[in-house]
DNA sequence: CGGTTGTTTCGGTAAACACCGAACGCTTTG
DNA sequence: CAAAGCGTTCGGTGTTTACCGAAACAACCG
């Protein structure tokens, strides 16, 4: 059957996206399927994905579940078709924020929790080397701050985000007029 | 020999950091070594790392090279010792920026380049579905913008970064007074 | 210049992971 | 209430990746 992937550039995109995924700890099938759905002009049933990418049906199923876990793909119903169909989020900001949210939830938050425990325990532990106590404490504080920042930024309306991004380094002018002008660090 | 890792909390930190790494596509040895160096109060020679973590000497060697590739670990000389010693960057902002810089260089920049090519070619390709052309174009623009933003932010002096981070969502007030107040999206 | 100490390279092995396909269960349909 | 369609689960398999240990290489010292 004819699919999007017949086009060489589409294929290049999907393959690259797949490799990209692997480098960030996402498995190839998952990211390939995401790429395919992102380019599709209509919801696709699992079968078609299977055929287009040459993957096993079961693999596609679990990959789709994973993508839904990130909330960047969702199930939709199509008139007169019993099968589930899937569409990808096409707003790229939304996509990025959701991926970030989920990775934070899965990996960062537990890390913060652990660091919190360790830092707390070390605070009263006289036997531990001073530098260890300080550095684990700093790490905890640092990651917590980043996490807090993300939670705030994530709640800004999208147009604001776009505007901030376009501002780039110039935002610095607002925080401390003198510092905002440097181009070097 | 007695090492930092005798302390259970230090061990917990190192192990967790190692697992963390694997989830982000960094191999376990590399991130464990990084964690160990981060907590160490003095430069460590490869031997000590080998012994402390129970890794093969060769593995430690390649991992150290990798860490130096990220510029978050550097070689130092210690008086009266022929061996190379290694220390980790302890400024966490610096660490984060360097990791980001390197990953951008390795993964994002090539992606932008590829997307640029594809987008350019598709612009003149009448046979390609309209949505594909648009979406690959959008993706290219989006990632390029993010990349540009990073390059600017990266050059801000560190205190400014800290200040901006502390501001959190409040930065939004400067870009468009009405939008900055929302807590929901 | 040997011998010593330290580092890197490389081929093989073991562990992790992705992926497949068969079997199972649920839902719809004739 | 069979039978077919669809989705998921699960055990096994192949591929990738990390890791080890031996050998090669380089620097230094007597």
Automatic annotation (TrEMBL), chains A, B:
GO terms for molecular function: DNA binding; DNA-binding transcription factor activity. Keywords: DNA-binding, Transcription, Transcription regulation. This is HTH-type transcriptional regulator. The keyword RNA-binding does not apply. Residues 25-83 form the HTH marR-type domain. Belongs to the GbsR family. It comes from Sphingomonas yantingensis. InterPro entries: HTH-GbsR_regulator, HTH_MarR-typ, MJ1563, WH-like_DNA-bd_sf, WH_DNA-bd_sf. PANTHER family: HTH-TYPE TRANSCRIPTIONAL REGULATOR MJ1563-RELATED. Transmembrane segments: none annotated.
């Amino acid at each position: 059957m004819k699919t999007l992937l017949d086009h060489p550039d589409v294929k290049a995109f999907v393959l690259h996206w797949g490799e990209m995924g692997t480098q960030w700890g996402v498995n190839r099938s998952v990211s390939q399927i995401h790429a395919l759905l992102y380019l599709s002009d209509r919801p696709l049933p699992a079968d078609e994905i299977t055929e287009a990418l040459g993957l096993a049906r079961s693999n596609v199923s679990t990959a789709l579940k994973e993508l839904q876990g990130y909330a960047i793909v969702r199930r939709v119903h199509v008139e007169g078709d019993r099968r589930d169909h899937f569409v990808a989020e096409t707003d790229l900001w939304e996509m990025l924020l959701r991926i970030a949210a989920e990775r934070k939830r899965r990996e960062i938050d537990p890390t913060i929790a652990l660091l919190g425990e360790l830092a707390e325990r070390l605070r009263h532990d006289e036997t531990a080397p001073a530098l260890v106590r300080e550095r684990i404490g700093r790490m905890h504080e640092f990651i917590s701050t980043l996490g807090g920042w993300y939670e705030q930024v994530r709640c800004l309306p999208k147009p604001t985000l776009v505007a901030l991004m376009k501002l780039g380094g110039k935002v610095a002018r607002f925080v401390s007029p003198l510092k905002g002008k440097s181009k070097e660090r």
